[in-house]
Amino acid sequence: METLSENACFGGVQGVYRHASSTCQCDMTFGLFLPAEAKDGPVPILWYLSGLTCTHENAMTKAGAQTWAAEQGIAVVFPDTSPRGEGVADHADYDLGQGAGFYVNATQDPWAPHFQMWDYVAEELPALLAENFAIDSDRQAITGHSMGGHGALTLAMNLPGRFRSVSAFAPISNPTGADWGRKQLSAYLGEDEAAWAKHDASLMMKETGFDGPILIDTGADDQFIDLLRPEALAQAIAERRQQAIYRLQPGYDHSYFFVSTFMEDHVTFHAEALYGD
Amino acid sequence: METLSENACFGGVQGVYRHASSTCQCDMTFGLFLPAEAKDGPVPILWYLSGLTCTHENAMTKAGAQTWAAEQGIAVVFPDTSPRGEGVADHADYDLGQGAGFYVNATQDPWAPHFQMWDYVAEELPALLAENFAIDSDRQAITGHSMGGHGALTLAMNLPGRFRSVSAFAPISNPTGADWGRKQLSAYLGEDEAAWAKHDASLMMKETGFDGPILIDTGADDQFIDLLRPEALAQAIAERRQQAIYRLQPGYDHSYFFVSTFMEDHVTFHAEALYGD
Question: In the record, which residues are listed under signal peptide (chains A, B) (predicted)?
Fold first, then answer.
């Protein structure tokens, strides 16, 4: 693992690291904020999964998460959104290929060899973090924005016991029923929709739900709201009687100005779950 | 004036606007955050002047100022750092020409026609804001980072009564004595150093000081600290017995991670001055 940069930040350190990923078969870069408390021992960690077109860097510089993570003594990891590099397949569209891994393990050509983002985020990167940093793997929470909100919700529901809490900003909520989803799931997983179900937060909510608290914010004026389909997830949450706070925020759109506005609420929400018990 | 974007942000609006500048003789773009309180009437305003290579956008997306400005009910304006466009002179170096206006009125060719950033920030943009937005021009404060800290300090000291408070993050503090300064001042203002003095915060501090509180933060591990010359300004402040808080922050560098870490302190500092009396 190589240190690309480390900057003092809110009393802790904002680092950027690169490593050779055996899962994605390419170099992968991630950001990690460690609060001051990490000098004294392992700290809880919040995963932040980013949206389409993003790298590890966007949320790290624009979402304002460190402000509140430092206040709560929580680490935040910012993984990249896909494998990258010259030997990695790509597509001319912004929403397929590099920058658009969709947090699945691709089974279809040309994506299968590198696009294994599910395993990367669920297995390889957690192990790397536990080995190299003062992270308490028993206290993890997860959030994300847009495609990353989709990733956060589906990982949390598919890995019971892993995350104490899950939240999302404007998540892609029903990808099997929208163009942000059908296009990518068919490309990465093939046409058999049975393989898609675990990657649809609304279907997973109907099927299994989440054993912990959920917080979801979506801008009522989100310019992509028809692709997000928040109504499908809201209905599924209500049908299941899932512990959840589901908010539509008037006037807000899909931007990082929206994300940063509600970041304090999300980090505080996760801190309550991470420090409870 | 043209609206390029408006995003809901911390209960207010983060806008980006473009206008034909008579001062710079080109189109100029700026960001303006208006807190929710601006819907009910004029609000105080904090000027944020950015550093070398920045546009209006960098601090607007990375400095975290809106978080605290919203809490205090203060507007924040993010001007660009220079004139721009095809007809505007430029230089291959990052620290001269476009993106490096240095907050002076150039008198030398090829810069003179467009590089009038002092008048733009001191005269044209304030008038435009007062005419178009709910801004209380009697309650203004100013801050900035690096070259923008230089701009904030020199504008505040040269325009007595204009700003109630001034702060700076890692300001270029003694440009007549460092390569970040001598190069630009000679290019824009010519070789007669008498014309440079009003653009040197340390010289201005010796000459006139500031009738109000000052807050300055510089990272003790700033990678450009030899170019900033904080010692010159610290000495001048102490000699004058100027009301000031001058802090060296251990471990911090020149990045926006440094700026955002101390942004709450700076906005709170300005709020006290803006809401006092």
Answer: none
Partners of B12 on chain A (C-beta within 8 Å) are none
Residues of B recognised as catalytic = 146, 222, 254
pTM summary value: 0.92
Say which of B9, B64, B251 has its CB closest to residue A8.
B251
A93-151 per-position pLDDT tens digit:
999 999 999 999 999 999 999 999 999 999 999 999 999 999 999 999 999 999 999 99
The interface predicted TM-score of the complex, written ipTM, equals 0.85
Q: Which residues contact A62 (CB under 8 A, 6 or more apart)?
A: A256, A259, A260, B61, B62
How many whole angstroms separate alpha carbon B121 and alpha carbon A66? 32
Q: Do A14 and B253 touch (CB under 8 A)?
A: no
Q: Which among B66, B67, B257 is the nearest to A14, CB-wise? A: B257
Rg of chain A taking only CA atoms, in angstroms: 17
Phi, psi at residue A84, to the nearest 5°? -145, 160
Which residues of chain A are at the B interface, by a Cβ-Cβ cutoff of 8 Å? 7-11, 14, 61-62, 64, 66-67, 219, 221, 249, 251-253, 255-258, 260-261, 264
What is the number of structural domains in chain B? 1
Structural domain including A31 reads: 2-275
- Looking at residue B220, which CATH number applies to its domain? 3.40.50.1820
Please state, in angstroms and rounded to a whole number, the distance separating the CA atoms of residues A215 and A194.
27
